């Protein structure tokens, strides 16, 4: 049964639902300041006091401290961190999978994880109100209330999965850049290894040279160089490279590097074979993409080219049949 937009009941319903949505969003954002976390404050005070005591008791050292990268040193937003903490969005099992998912997009550290989890919840709260206001006021004012409620629920689901779609798009773009530049990186690694460089020096040199072609691959190889320097197990550094990128070609190279470290096999021969396979795979992907162009061009040609061609061919005959000079 359609509802009249000018009726007092519908206007009150719209005002009440909008007020509830606004109140829920404000409450979700302001919750960290409404309820104080006494335990976190005491732990923070104890940690600060412990660091002060440690600095006062230890002697000054002449070794320079290595500063962390801005990507890792960035602290999470206080509002987002409060939302994640109060609503317990970061579960232990899911947090590891989400962190791995974000690392594949190049987002490392605690701040991207907190922002991702909080944005999913905020979007799920805000989108129903936006959907309800748009449907009732702009799209179809005479829709039944049940239909509007269903659309608002759909908006909540879309808002919840929208950040995941955005991160997935970043992963696809990052994979495209890595896949395009990885064969060249293997060739450079082969040259460096056969010239007598160690694995760390080879990775460092390739990271410097490949940056102009793929910034993403340069970042991954620079991080692998750092892990090879400070991790006790070199195998873990190689495995981290494969898990961060998520590409089969890089995982195959990682497996070859691990076997070379473990059994002492020829690293140069392994890199030569992997580089050739990666180039063949890149060429096959390019040929597949080129072979898929004719089917994709069929529909645009039928819709746009053929009508114009028929008009150009048939117009003189039609004018001649009509006797138009």
TrEMBL record:
What does the UniProt entry say about where the protein is found? Cell membrane
Domain Type II secretion system protein GspF per the UniProt entry, residue ranges:
186-313
Q: Where is the organism placed in the taxonomic lineage, from the top? A: Bacteria, Pseudomonadati, Pseudomonadota, Alphaproteobacteria, Rhodobacterales
Residue ranges annotated as transmembrane are 12-34, 113-137, 143-163, 297-319
Organism in which the protein naturally occurs: Marivita lacus
**UniProtKB keywords:** Cell membrane, Membrane, Transmembrane, Transmembrane helix
**Source taxon at top rank:** Bacteria
Q: What is its main location?
A: membrane
Q: In what way does this protein cross or attach to the membrane? A: Multi-pass membrane protein
Indicate what this protein is called per its UniProt record.
Type II secretion system protein
């Amino acid at each position: 049964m359609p509802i009249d937009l000018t009726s007092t009941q519908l206007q009150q319903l719209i005002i009440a639902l909008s007020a509830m949505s606004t109140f829920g969003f404000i409450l979700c954002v302001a919750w960290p300041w409404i309820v104080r976390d006494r335990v976190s404050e005491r732990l923070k005070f104890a940690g600060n006091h412990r660091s002060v005591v440690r600095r006062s008791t230890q002697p000054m050292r002449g070794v320079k401290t290595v500063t962390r990268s801005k990507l890792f040193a960035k602290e999470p937003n206080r509002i987002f961190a409060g939302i994640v903490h109060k609503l317990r969005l970061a579960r232990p099992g899911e947090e590891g999978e989400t962190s791995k998912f974000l690392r594949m997009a190049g987002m490392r550290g605690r701040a991207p994880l907190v922002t991702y989890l909080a944005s999913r919840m905020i979007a799920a709260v805000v989108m129903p109100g936006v959907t309800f206001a748009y449907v009732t006021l702009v799209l179809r004012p005479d829709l039944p209330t049940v239909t509007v409620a269903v659309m608002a629920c759909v908006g909540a689901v879309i808002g919840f999965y929208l950040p995941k779609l955005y991160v997935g798009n970043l992963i696809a773009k990052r994979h495209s850049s890595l896949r395009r530049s990885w064969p060249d990186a293997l060739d450079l690694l082969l040259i460096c290894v056969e010239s007598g460089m160690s694995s760390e020096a080879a990775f460092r040199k390739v990271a410097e040279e490949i940056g102009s072609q793929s910034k993403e691959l340069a970042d991954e190889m620079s991080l692998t160089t750092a892990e090879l320097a400070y991790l006790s197990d070199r195998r873990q550094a190689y495995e981290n490279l494969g898990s961060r990128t998520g590409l089969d070609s890089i995982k195959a190279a990682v497996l070859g590097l691990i076997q070379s470290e473990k059994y002492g096999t020829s690293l140069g021969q392994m890199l030569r074979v992997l580089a050739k396979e990666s180039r063949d795979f890149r060429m096959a992907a390019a040929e597949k993409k080129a072979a898929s162009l004719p089917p994709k061009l069929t529909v645009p040609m039928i819709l746009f080219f053929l009508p114009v061609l028929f008009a150009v061919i048939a117009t003189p005959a039609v004018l001649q049949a009509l006797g138009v000079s």
